[in-house]
TrEMBL record:
SUPFAM superfamilies noted in UniProt: ALDH-like (SSF53720)
InterPro entries, per the entry: Ald_DH/histidinol_DH, Ald_DH_C, Ald_DH_CS_GLU, Ald_DH_N, Aldehyde_DH_dom
Residues in coiled coil: none
Keyword NADP belongs to the record: yes
PROSITE patterns associated with the record: ALDEHYDE_DEHYDR_GLU
Taxonomic superkingdom: Bacteria
Protein name according to UniProt: Aldehyde dehydrogenase PuuC
Keyword Kinase: no
Stated family: Belongs to the aldehyde dehydrogenase family.
Catalytic residues (positions): E267
Length: 495
């Protein structure tokens, strides 16, 4: 049996020649300005490749390609069954190239390759299949308009969809935004994060091989101000689907208001509460789940970063969480047993360390708190746990997006719910209890797009994902995702 060990991944990484050019109208092209930037591997500091540093001119070219393909009908007006077949082919190609995709993701943003390969890629293949299969099973409506009238209510593709995504799950986010949009018949312009363009560009290669017509899928790499902003302000983009920080999400609302009132769908930040009641049946399982806050280096919007524990079990429970945190000792992301890789870059690692320093001034450091150097890179941070946190401490209010857990004690259910909801965010929440009434009562009271009971961070193509309050609007995943990428057309026929 093939053993994917450190040597295997290291050798394979050395043979990769990642694409760094933009993908516009079915071709890989340099930026019009010919500018490039150095794309680095955060786990070693080495330059992986030069990536096109695009700007307004490249965005314009991509939008023209997208618009032309959309209006021609080569994709937008073929039958949903034909689109399904092509997208299923794409799923097959993603599966075929899973190793390369996982490795590119790991090299680009520091996550453990075996997590990407063993867990994320198989899920993504299923995700693409799920949306491909869904599209020719959706029926439109006929209104009860009475004799002599036929009122048809149909869902049409919107047109040109701009997708702007972050670096924490580069391929997941690219797929979440573009596959439902493509399935519905739109043409797409995708901007990956500056730190992590490689899997989006590899996806473009597979899109072409699958037979999606030229111009339907475009990728424009570059910086937020040079590419994201002109997309947000573009007069010929009909919709922006954004995942990223709340700060930049707000900018997209502004861009829309000052341009063409394009639709803006936002999946933004989070500071998710995880409430553990003393009546929890399996405290070990709850502690293992709580330690998942360190998954993906803690760079997850929906991560359960505020652990609210009932005071009577706090010490016992916290000891268990600390024990489970050991599994996330930072290691070389290419090591097959690594569960925690490098922070995405030095700037972000600095920012996370600033939060840790702020935490040390206000709360009690229980575990970690240090930066580590591995393979010459200083971008590794230990799993860090703070006890005796108050909900008004900096580390309980701001999204850190790193491996930092804040523990807050509570005495009553009412107090737990109040603390949990005392945040500007509302993406995800968790409750651990064996009391069924309490599970329902607390789930109903929590202000979040998703509440997981006796589990954390439950995400699947089967159910909607997204937030309330300043975590954003709209929903990815499930059939509801199509609501973002279609508009309702009424055709009223008198006869
Ligand atoms: P970010 O700074 O908001 O960036 C997201 C995207 O927006 C990137 O492609 C970025 O380009 C672009 N951008 C930056 N400044 C821009 C501007 N002025 N105008 C237009 N576009 C601009 O977020 P990030 O640091 O990459 O990712 C971390 C954030 O994403 C966290 O807040 C996290 O909660 C959020 N997130 C949310 C979800 C969710 O589903 N709710 C999922 C994952 C991540 P550059 O790369 O060039 O800066
Ligand atoms: Mg990178």
């Amino acid at each position: 049996m093939l053993e994917r060990n450190l040597g295997y991944w290291t050798e394979r990484a050395a043979t990769l020649r990642p694409e760094g050019r933009a993908f516009i109208a079915g071709e890989f092209v340099n930026a019009v300005s010919a500018a490039t930037y150095e794309n680095r591997n955060p786990a070693t500091g080495a330059v992986i490749n030069l990536v096109a540093s695009c700007d307004q001119l490249d965005v314009d070219a991509a939008v023209v390609a997208a618009r032309t393909s959309f209006e021609s009908g080569v994709w937008s007006r073929i039958t949903p069954t034909e689109r399904k077949k092509t997208l299923l082919k794409l799923a097959e190609l993603i599966e075929r190239d899973s190793e390369d995709l996982a490795l590119l993701e790991s090299l680009d943003m520091g996550k453990p390759v075996s997590v990407a390969f063993g867990y994320e890629l198989p899920e993504l293949v299923e995700y693409v299949r799920w949306f491909s299969e869904a599209i020719d099973k959706l029926y439109d409506e006929v209104a009860p308009a009475g004799e002599g009238n036929l009122a048809l209510i149909r869902r049409e593709p919107i047109g040109v969809v701009g997708a702007v995504v972050p670096w924490n799950f580069p391929l997941d986010m690219a797929i979440w935004k573009t596959i439902p949009a493509l399935a519905a018949g739109n043409s797409v312009v995708l901007k990956p994060a500056e730190q992590s363009p490689l899997t989006a560009l590899k996806l473009a290669e597979l899109v072409k091989e699958a037979g999606i017509p030229d111009g339907v899928f475009n990728v424009v790499p570059g910086f937020g101000s040079a590419v994201g902003r002109p997309m947000g302000l573009h007069m010929d983009i009909d919709c922006i689907a954004f995942t990223g920080s709340t700060e930049v999400g707000k900018m997209f609302l502004g861009y829309s208001a000052s341009s063409n009132m394009k639709l803006v769908w936002l999946e933004c930040g989070g500071k998710s509460p995880n409430i553990v009641f003393a009546d929890t049946e399996n405290l070990d399982a709850a502690a293992e789940a709580a330690a998942k806050v360190f998954y993906n280096q803690g760079e997850i919007c929906s991560s359960p970063t505020r652990l609210l524990v009932e005071r009577s079990i706090k010490d016992v429970f916290v000891t268990k969480v600390v024990a489970h945190a050991a599994a996330y000792r930072p290691r070389d992301p290419l090591h097959p047993e690594s569960m925690m890789g490098a922070m995405v870059d030095g700037n972000h690692a600095n920012r996370v360390m600033e939060f840790i320093e702020a935490g040390k001034k206000q709360a009690r450091l229980l575990l970690g708190g240090n930066r580590l150097t591995i393979n010459g890179s200083e971008n590794f941070i230990e799993p860090t746990i703070f006890d005796e946190v108050q909900n008004d401490h900096v580390i309980a209010r701001d999204e850190i997006f790193g491996p930092v857990l804040a523990i807050i004690a509570f005495d009553t259910e009412e107090e737990a719910v109040r603390i949990a909801n005392d945040t500007v965010y509302g993406l995800m929440a968790s409750v651990f209890t064996s009391n069924l009434s309490r599970a329902h009562r607390v789930s109903n009271a929590l202000k979040a797009g998703t509440v997981a009971v006796n589990a954390v961070d439950m995400i699947s193509p089967l159910v909607p994902f997204g937030g309330v309050k300043q975590s954003g609007n709209g929903r990815d995943n499930s059939l509801h995702a199509f609501e973002k990428y279609t508009s309702l057309k009424t055709t009223w026929i008198k006869y």
